[in-house]
Amino acid sequence: MEDEILPLCRELGIGFVPYSPLGRGFLTGQIRSFDDLAEDDFRRFSPRFQGENFQKNLDLVERIREIAEKKGCEPSQLALAWLLAQGDDIVPIPGTKKAKYLIENAGAVKVSLTAEELQQIDAAAPKGIAAGDRYEQNGMSTLNR
After folding, report:
1. Average pLDDT for consecutive 10-residue bins of the chain (145 residues)?
2. Is the dihedral of CA 44, 48, 49, 50 positive or negative?
3. What is residue 144's predicted lDDT score, i.e. its pLDDT?
4. Structural domain spans, the chain
5. Fold of 22-131
6. Long-range contacts of 44-49 (CB under 8 A, 24+ apart)
């Protein structure tokens, strides 16, 4: 879908706001196990946070964390900096509940990525690699919970 929508937006001069740019919090590096999610956390019902999908996605986050560590930034900042490097028409708006994460996320604008680093990130987490569907297959969005 992204391969169709983004070129159309660019053709029409429309900016693009990526949905859940930090992977529902996964790309922050703060979620290390299913038990890190509160009992009433909606992500417990998301296929990407269940079973072997959880571990596969956690492995992806670990690759991003390693690149961020070498870069001297947080995984969330690296993810947002990667999005910002995709074009001036890409505007990630990460949600947060805490001021410290708002400040951390804003720090992504100071993370400058080289072409080589962008390639490393693309290789570590290629498009479509996330394990599991975004939503439950029964058609009910986790947003409706």
Report:
1. 87 94 87 88 88 91 95 96 96 92 95 97 90 69 42
2. positive
3. 41
4. 22-131
5. TIM Barrel (3.20.20)
6. 45/136, 45/142, 45/145, 46/132, 46/134, 46/135, 46/136, 46/142, 47/132, 47/133, 47/134, 47/135, 47/136, 47/137, 48/23, 48/24, 48/130, 48/131, 48/132, 48/133, 48/134, 49/24, 49/132
